[in-house]
Amino acid sequence: MRLIANFHGLRSGFTGLWITGLWLLFSAILPAQSPETIKLHDDPDSPGIVKRRLTATVTPGQTAEITAWDGACRFGLELDDRSTVYRRSDGNLEWTVTLETMPDTNRLVYRFDSDNLVFYYQDTLSGFERDSLDAERPDSVIGSYAVYYTGGRGNYRVHVGGRIVTTEFRTGKVFHVYRPRAWDGRGDTVWCRLYIDTTDGLVSITVPPEFLAAAAYPVTVDPTFGATAGGGSNCILSSFCYGNVNSDYQHTASGGETVDSLHLYLKSYESGDFAARAAVYTVDIGDEPDLRAGQPVSITGTGATSQWYSAPCSIEMADGETYTLAAGECTNGARVHYDDGAAGSINRSASATLDVAWTATAQYRDDILQVYATYSVSSGTDTLIAARRRQMIIGQ
Predict the structure, then answer these.
(1) Distance from C-alpha of 154 to C-alpha of 145, rounded to nearest angstrom
(2) Contact 232, 336 (CB under 8 A)
(3) CATH number, domain 233-395, options 2.30.30, 3.40.1000, 2.60.120, 2.40.160
(4) Per-residue pLDDT tens for 130-188?
(5) 158-172: pLDDT as tens digits
(6) SS3 string of 147-184?
């Protein structure tokens, strides 16, 4: 079978084939041939604020379109009459393709187009990630794609004459496309291979041929588009600190800017409070962290549920100086979330602490660590608040 894509900006994930009964988890089945808009975002609406606001508009058997930030980015997919789309109770979008008999090919191909999105493949964990960072990457994330908006990596809020206009991008992550899974009529399951070809505009799902040959039909493949904003993997940065060296994630300050809070996406399996630290650094001529601006900020939390945690600070930035972020010093099992991203974007410090002077090493990682900063700007008699939240990338 062949599906054709025309989705627009959303974070999502593909999963596998369907087992009868599990659909009870999903909360909304779209009426046949009737376009319906489904809100998927995990950010509450606020007057005067443009948030991520993931939205899917689906015409069953024809097209599905997902948009974010009021259409600033998009991803599109064309459906067929074997496709059904559901909104799961957790806010994610589930799309199933049912194969009533053994197909002629084990490769399902979807043509897609997108605007202002970049797709980062999530490979298996490296030995360093497993052994030195105690990293976790769920089976559904291995072989998946993290999708980021290319047009904005921060929040911007303007107060002028009592009028407030705000756009919030956080780290710029839009959605996550999870590894597909296949299910047959007996309940047997298998992981499938997902490949997103951004050059030719093709999404391919390959089902193992031996599974299809032995399956009890019908067989269902159910890609899932995940709406959660955090990274799909996590690790403990207790012995290492990483600083961003990717100029796309650095900020050149203008007059009157002050960092007023830092944010990390965290969890811990240990009881009691946990903590991780983040810091702001100036940048040297090689785009690596140089000198720390202000003191490191300790960000604390509790529990095994991943979420954003933040801590206030007051770090003035000099006009014309370029700044970047660094993180580390995890205690009590604090796990920092991240996605695999652009190559060689984060440098590892020779020190296990966020020292005043960064000591660069030859060790780089490729991933996007889920950390951002909020910046406030004062200008004349009006107040301009630009909450530019910069993500940091780990590289290998």
Answers:
(1) 21
(2) no
(3) 2.60.120
(4) 999 999 999 999 999 999 998 866 665 555 555 555 667 778 888 999 999 999 999 99
(5) 555 555 556 677 788
(6) EEECCCCCCEEEEECCEEEEECCCCCEEEEECCCEEEC
Residue position matching structure tokens 């290998």: 396
Residue 324 CA to its chain's centroid (Å):
20
Nearest to 75 by CA among 15, 30, 13: 13
- Segment (H or E) for 130: helix 127-132
If DSSP codes are grouped into helix, strand and coil, which group holds residue 332? coil
Tell me how long the chain is: 396
d(CA 326, CA 371): 9
Q: Where are the domains of the chain?
A: 2-161+173-226, 233-395
Task: Output the DSSP codes for 198-244.
Answer: TTTTEEEEE--HHHHHH--S-EEE--EEE---S-SEEE--SS--EEE
Label residue 142 exposed, middle or buried (CB < 10 Å: 0-12, 13-18, 19+): middle
CA 154 to mean position of chain CA atoms: 14
Q: Can you point out the beta strands (E) in 80-160?
A: 83-88, 93-99, 107-115, 117-122, 144-149, 156-160
Q: Tell the residue number behind the tokens 């047997």, with chain if given.
A: 188
Residue that the structure tokens 């030719």 belong to:
200
